[in-house]
Please model this.
Amino acid sequence: MLIALLTTLALATGNAAAFELSCFYADKTDEGAFGHAEQCAREDGGGIVFNPEILRRMQFGADGLAPAAVAGWRWVRPDGRSVSVITYDNGPDEFEEGLARGRRPEGMAYYDKQLDLALATSYAWAEPFSGGLAAVCSHCVSVQDGEHSVMVGGDWGAIDRKGVLALPLRPDAASLRSDLEAARKRR
Model:
């Protein structure tokens, strides 16, 4: 009985201990510099719930989004909704043609600036859209190359914004790059 009462009281008072994950986030009280916070967020049903106190301190951009790192990079809305995106150049994947990339168990995905799933793919890797097309690969693997990693092997092709193959899969990534540039110029 006492445990139930204490648990109810802790939840009702917004117990910071309920947020067991730490994070890095753009802090508006420090001109958008990245700050570290303990008790920043918690996992809930496969998603992340941010501590309302930390959420109020986040620096949101003109697009209404703030970057935060909790078990990987995420884009966060003021209402706390967030989506996990891939790490690109030591930060969250940037939006290209209105879409950022993330991983799902089934493959790569693209999210819009409302953080809605815009396109789910079955590909192991997908590059940002440029000129309405994005290079994709199936069965490729990530290999460390100094500070960064590169995708090697597999079959490479290009998709349009609907996820339809615009350039067929092939084992030669170099020829895809050449064909992809030509296809972008024709659009």
In short: Residues 1-13 have pLDDT under 50 and may be disordered. The helical segments are 2-12, 52-57, 173-186. The first strand starts at residue 21 and ends at 27. The chain has three helices and 17 strands.
